[in-house]
Write a structure and sequence with these properties.
It is a single chain. The protein has 507 residues and is an alpha/beta fold. The protein is 42% helix and 20% strand. It contains 19 helices and 23 strands. The protein has a 6-stranded mixed beta sheet, with helices on both faces. The radius of gyration is 23 Å and the shape is globular. InterPro entries: ATPase_NBD (IPR043129), Carb_kinase_FGGY (IPR000577), Carb_kinase_FGGY_CS (IPR018483), FGGY_C (IPR018485), FGGY_Carb_Kinase (IPR050406), FGGY_N (IPR018484), Xylulokinase (IPR006000). Belongs to the FGGY kinase family. It catalyses: D-xylulose + ATP = D-xylulose 5-phosphate + ADP + H(+). It comes from Candidatus Gallacutalibacter pullicola.
Length: 507
């Protein structure tokens, strides 16, 4: 029997899972670590915390399972995207990593846009300059910490630093590299033009691989720390969303997934490059060689429901505690009693500003149509509907770009709600499914490791062999038409309020 390891290096912690080749979980281990915020809007972590967490969790699953390490065929790495790791000539960390959610680089984004040109930047990197991406973080260090930048010889992402510690290799892969804003996304290689215009030395960047390719092998030192056999292959792996797409089987045209976590993601697979010239959605290389994905991101998805729960649902929280159930379960039951359209109440989920489709940090949340007939349960349902409509905005852009969506997978905390899944099915007017496995990114990169080790013929074949789905929720006849009327009101509100948002932000 052969086994595979998937390690998912997230922002709150690392989860490592040992699978058999049928995708069954043999052992799992999680280690958390801190995030540092030295100033408002800044976010950093110590890369050695990631490495220690990966080494510890791999050792835990190997020891807990009792599996012979010679039977572990490969290791796959998934990771938080965009986070900047800088190493000196000896491979030592120069400063804490600047994370994906760090917002200090607005001036550097302006610098990138000025030097490359907005349209040209989107043509090459498939995205406008954003504070979350890695290139602006590199320029920030150069502009503000020149003594550190002068010592820098290697630039890596979170999972790629872990790869270096496991294998001694400086490497990355196309899906994660796409989020650095230095990759020629259509051609799946570093962009000499962007690097030259930004004056970044290409030699500091790792070699770019496809996600299932073997990038290196476990060293003797890493073997001692992890319990893995020296020489075990480590594949490219993937950024977190690209890894989740493999873990949910979204690896062929027509398939997509919606994640309702703190933020919301709509992710669609595409065998052809598709770039939005307006920069409203992200196009990245995906974990399937020669393919891409297009992704819309909304910032206040599950966060909107959490905000409502924490401020208005104390009764439900207390009752749920007494019943031994999740408060969201009771909130779902209350929202089910409210008709579609929440009795003509519409919620805009822009409590953190918005990325897709508006790219507007100034917009804010709104309850529109509030009247004396409304109860908190009308407001509750309108929050769920508003988040669903924000995901629909992303779907509409993907369709506008020529992507077909026949089947939608639902992931994240929101995906566990039958009511929310039905809203998605009715609003998108397509089937919505969930996968039986809950391991997402860790399973995805374990399957990539299986492809690299020759266990599966391809990423698509790996998903066919392993990924199982639950019965779909289909649109209920008549419901799509009801949601459509409300969605059209929702869709018209942002343009009407855009200037008012600017006014409010200037006060």
């Amino acid at each position: 029997m052969k086994y595979l390891i998937g390690s998912d290096i997230g922002t709150s912690g690392t989860k490592t899972v040992l699978f058999d080749t049928a995708g069954n979980v043999i052992a799992s281990s999680t280690v958390e670590y801190p995030m540092y915020q030295p100033q408002n809007g800044w976010a950093e972590q110590d890369p050695n915390d990631w490495w220690n967490a990966v080494a510890r969790t791999i050792k835990n699953v190997v020891e807990e399972s009792g599996v012979d390490n010679a039977d572990i065929a490969g290791v796959g790495l998934s990771g938080q995207m965009h986070s900047l790791v800088m190493l000196d000539e000896a491979g030592k960390v120069l400063r804490k990593a600047i994370l994906w959610c760090d917002q200090r680089t607005a001036k550097e984004c302006e610098e990138i846009t000025e030097k490359v040109g907005r349209e040209r930047l989107i043509e090459i990197t498939a995205n406008p300059a954003l504070t979350g991406f890695t290139a602006s973080k590199i320029l920030w260090v150069r502009n503000n910490e020149p003594e550190i930048y002068a010592k820098c010889r290697h630039i890596l992402l979170a999972k790629d630093y872990v790869r270096y510690m496991l294998t001694g290799e400086f490497a990355t892969e196309v899906s994660d590299a796409s989020g650095m804003q230095l990759l020629d996304v259509p051609n799946r290689c570093w962009s000499d033009e962007v690097l030259e215009k930004l004056d970044i030395d290409k030699s500091m960047l790792g070699k770019v691989y496809e996600s299932p390719e073997v990038t290196g092998y476990i060293t003797a030192e890493a073997s001692k720390l992890t319990g893995l056999k020296e020489g075990t292959p480590v594949v490219g792996g993937a950024g977190d969303n690209a890894a989740a797409s493999v873990g949910t089987g979204v690896v062929v045209d027509g398939k997509a997934f919606t994640t309702i976590g703190t933020s919301g993601v709509v992710y669609a697979h595409s065998s052809k490059i598709a770039i939005d010239p307006k920069g409203r959605v992200h196009t990245f290389c995906c974990a399937v060689p020669g393919c891409w994905h297009v992704m819309g991101v909304t910032l206040g998805a599950g966060l909107s429901l959490k905000w409502f729960r924490d401020n208005f649902c104390n009764e439900e929280k207390l009752t749920a505690e007494g019943m031994g159930v999740d408060p969201y379960y009771l909130m779902d039951k209350q929202a089910e009693r409210v008709p579609i359209g929440s009795n003509r109440l519409v919620y805009l989920p822009y409590i953190m500003g918005e990325r897709t489709p508006h790219l507007d940090p100034d917009c804010r949340g709104v309850f529109f149509g509030l009247s004396a007939i409304h109860t908190k349960y009308d407001m509750l349902r309108s929050v769920m509907e508003g988040v669903t409509f924000s995901q629909r905005d992303s779907v509409e852009i993907l369709r506008e770009m020529g992507l077909t969506i026949n089947e939608m997978m639902a992931c994240g905390g929101g995906g566990s709600s039958p009511l929310w899944r039905q809203m998605l099915a009715d609003t998108f007017n397509c089937d919505v499914k969930t996968v039986k496995s809950k391991e997402g990114p860790a399973l995805g990169v374990a399957l990539l490791a299986g492809v690299g080790a020759g266990i599966y013929e391809s990423v698509e074949k790996a998903c066919e062999a392993v990924i199982e789905t639950n019965a779909p929720q289909s649109p209920i006849p008549g419901n799509p038409e009801k949601y459509e009327k409300v969605y059209q009101v929702y869709h018209a509100l942002y343009p009407s309020l855009k200037e008012n948002y600017k006014q409010l932000a200037s006060i």
